[in-house]
């Protein structure tokens, strides 16, 4: 038996994967097994993995079935009391597992612990932005309204998954949000307020799948509210408002922005949750959407890059240095 099973899923992420794996093998907490699930890659990872000499590493290859299926494969193979997830292009700070194990060992009511994240771009450059979720404890009402937990930051008790189940492989988006909602319904959640994960931001590749996204979000929300007391139902409208705003963001962040659809989903968001118009997320979206249409994508990206550079300078003390990578 091992204390922690680390499940790394990968699909054609060989460009980043050696650093990802290195960040796990260099953890200060070493009572781990590392289960790598390759979801049908064609980038030569199965050949490369033979060069890894570490008895803690297990490699499993499967045909391409999606990230949820790959994570579920890892869960079925896992032997650990705790399970931690990592995408094949993200990195961990050396003490990430140690700090999370400490939380779960000391707080029996906590079923899941996650961390803050430092965001980086496709070239492994830190953007200067750190995602800082604050909510912890019994947070079902908060997480059902908006997902604030990134999968690469999560450590969860295996016993908790035995109760609530695993990832829904039928979902094409937000499969992690669906699982965290179920976990939060039965366990307390904890957050380590330190950016122990470097999380990679990619341009959206799902720009033509809006109908499927809408259906998946609807499935998740209706599942969450199917048996709650009547007093909780107003939260459902807020959930629909935020997921529509999320889709609007994806419309303008796609490689080929669709501003018409973005405006449609933005209006749907306000229809469901009128007060959302005063939120930071809505104001940020409105500014980004307007600038993209006024100055064009290239100029907007340049302005955003300049803004992120300035922000990086001011937040240098909070940024996480890449593991095995010089910035």
TrEMBL record:
Keyword field contains Transferase: yes
Location of the Glycosyltransferase 2-like domain: 5-155
SUPFAM superfamilies, per the entry: Nucleotide-diphospho-sugar transferases
Keywords: Transferase
Highest taxon above the source species: Bacteria
GO molecular function per UniProt: transferase activity
Protein name, as recorded: Glycosyl transferase, family 2, putative
């Amino acid at each position: 038996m091992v204390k922690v099973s680390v499940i790394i899923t990968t699909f054609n992420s060989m460009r980043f994967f050696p650093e990802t794996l290195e960040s796990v093998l260099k953890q200060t907490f070493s009572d781990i097994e590392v289960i790598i699930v390759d979801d049908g890659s064609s980038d030569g990872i199965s050949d490369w993995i033979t060069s890894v000499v570490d008895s803690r590493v297990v490699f499993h290859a499967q045909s391409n079935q999606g990230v949820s299926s790959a994570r579920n494969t890892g869960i079925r193979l896992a032997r650990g009391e705790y399970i931690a997830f990592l995408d094949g292009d993200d990195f961990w700070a050396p003490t990430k597992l140690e700090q999370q194990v400490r939380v779960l060992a000391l707080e029996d009511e906590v079923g899941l612990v996650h961390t803050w994240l430092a965001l980086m771009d496709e070239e492994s450059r830190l953007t200067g932005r750190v995602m800082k979720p604050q909510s912890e404890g019994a947070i079902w009402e908060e997480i059902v309204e908006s997902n604030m937990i990134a999968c690469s930051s999560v450590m969860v008790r295996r016993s908790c998954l035995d109760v609530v189940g695993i990832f829904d492989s039928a979902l094409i988006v937000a499969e992690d949000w669906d699982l965290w909602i179920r976990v939060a319904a039965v366990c307390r959640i904890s957050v380590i307020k330190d950016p122990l994960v470097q999380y990679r931001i990619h341009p959206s590749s799902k720009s033509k799948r809006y109908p499927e996204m809408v259906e998946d979000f609807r499935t998740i929300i209706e599942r969450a509210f199917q048996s709650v007391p009547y007093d909780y139902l107003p939260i459902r409208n807020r959930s629909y408002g935020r997921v529509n705003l999320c889709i609007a963001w994806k419309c303008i962040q796609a490689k080929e922005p669709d501003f018409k659809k973005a405006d449609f989903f933005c209006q749907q968001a306000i229809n469901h949750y009128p007060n959302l118009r005063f939120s930071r997320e809505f104001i940020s979206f409105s500014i980004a959407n307007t600038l993209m249409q006024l100055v064009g994508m290239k100029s907007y990206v340049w302005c955003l890059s300049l803004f992120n550079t300035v922000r990086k300078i001011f937040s240098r003390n909070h940024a996480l240095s890449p593991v095995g990578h010089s910035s």
